[in-house]
Design a protein that fits this description.
Elements: H1 2-9, H2 13-19, H3 30-70, H4 75-89, H5 108-122, H6 125-133
Length: 134
């Protein structure tokens, strides 16, 4: 019976002990090989990071050249200028700084005049003359 089982399983009997929870055979050089593998991985990762940093520096130089050519400011510089302007505006104020109002907003006088002008444009000639005489 033993012979039949060995024939059926073939060479799998060596691994059978491992599957059943037996001790694994330890390779004497396994630890050394693992250290070498880890070192190789670390070295590859460092090379990859260096290559990426170099590429990013080249891209940034190209971007800066374009910014200089067309007079465009970096997003970070714009944000820093806006923050500095907010701080200057709120100096001496006891309340929190107010948000900057976009240009064109809050000019009620101009808005009222523009509405009246718009209405005047659409009035027929005789009515426009009546309003202009007053």
């Amino acid at each position: 019976m033993n012979f039949v089982m060995k024939q059926a399983l073939g060479g799998a009997t060596k691994d059978m002990g491992k599957m059943l929870g037996g001790e694994e055979e330890k390779d004497p050089d396994a630890e050394k090989k693992e250290e070498e593998r880890q070192e190789a991985l670390r070295q590859q990762e460092e090379e990859r990071k260096a290559k990426y940093a170099k590429m990013e520096a080249e891209r940034e130089n190209l971007r800066q050249g374009i910014r200089d050519k067309y007079g465009i400011k970096k997003k970070e510089e714009k944000e820093a200028e806006a923050a500095a302007a907010m701080e200057q505006a709120s100096e001496g104020s006891l309340t929190r700084p107010k948000k900057a109002v976009p240009t064109g907003c809050g000019d009620e006088e101009e808005e009222e005049e523009s509405i009246v002008d718009t209405v005047m444009k659409f009035l027929p000639g005789p009515l426009m003359d009546m309003f202009n005489k007053k």
